Amino acid sequence: MTVKPISAFDTISQRVIYGLNFMYSEFVPVESEKADEQGQKKLHRLMGTMIDRLYETPELLNLSGSADGAYEWSAVNNSNPELDKGYKSIFKCLSDFYKFLYISFLRGEINSNHLSVSNTVLKENKTGCKPPYKTLLKEIGIDIEKGKTETIATAENDILQSLRLLAEKVPVNVNPWTPYALINFACCSFTGDFNFLLTRVDHVAGLNGLLLEIQDKCLERGYEKSIKCSFGASGFGFSITFQNKVGGFIIEYNPYKCWKFSFGSMNSIGVKAMLEDFENLDNDLRKFFITVCKTCNSCLFCAKGGRNKIFAVKVKHEGKEYTLCPDNYSRHNWETMNRDLAAVLFKYHAAQEVYGSDWKKK
Questions:
Q1: 282: domain range?
Q2: Using CB atoms within 10 A as the burial measure, which of 57, 90, 314, 317 is most buried?
Q3: Distance set, CA 307 to CA 310, 311, 312 (Å)
Q4: What digits encode the pLDDT tens for the residues 79-118?
Q5: What is the pLDDT of residues 247-259, one digit of tens each?
Q6: At a CB cut-off of 8 Å and minimum separation 6, what does 285 contact?
Q7: Quick check: is 182 in a domain?
């Protein structure tokens, strides 16, 4: 499936699988005596084809046929329990499937055109072969048979060896909650390099190179770049950040959300201090805060029901008075990005390093 903009889907399964296809790696081989470049390339093509077939026919893995639906970016997922349940069932099916493949090829033994893995080993790793797996894997030329003591995969030897190599390349003990980076396996990334995502987002969002310009400016100014990708039973997605000492840019993807991507700033550290020094701010920043900060409505959320002093700050701009709430800084994220917004965010991040420095020291 070509990576291109899609605004509507027939089912939530298609929405989710589109996201998996979006994150699917570019082919970059690694040196290995186990699997040569041609074998790695063949596997990369076949695993991509498998995702295409799932998009066309989600029933191959018994994925939900529920009508498409998604959350607003600011909405919490449990605000629609039925939709949330549908999403989680899809993620769990996908996670279980790729976990089965990963454990099988990491722990199994290859002999010619067969891989065998002990059912006990699979059970110890809380996985196992399910009937839909056989149907889906058949699409890419892998036959699976579950016996009494072992499960056997039959395919061309170069495919089996490439799958073994891919499993061995998956990072483990990523963090206390993630025993292995399953996203690398699902996206057939032998190198774990997802730097292509920024260019892909720029292309699909129709930004004509703007994100690459932002990246260049960030790196010139000492921002640190980070890409985090995740894949698990409750969801998958990615975030790309460019961070200075306090804040920075963040670009995110979350298949639960109706926005294809979210563009914005990492946090609102220093906003209250900036509002308190409003008259000395750059004019673009003053206009920015008037636009993005909510006006105080005396909800007392920031004051914890009245126990603390209200955070709201009174400011004056172009002859008008405003009472702005820094605690309810409403616009961290936007559905798209443009050069004017990027320019003011660079100013905002620079101001954060000045006004938010006291917070950073604590």
A1: 268-331
A2: 90
A3: 9, 12, 15
A4: 788 888 999 999 999 999 999 999 999 999 999 999 999 9
A5: 999 999 999 888 8
A6: 274, 344, 347, 348, 351
A7: yes
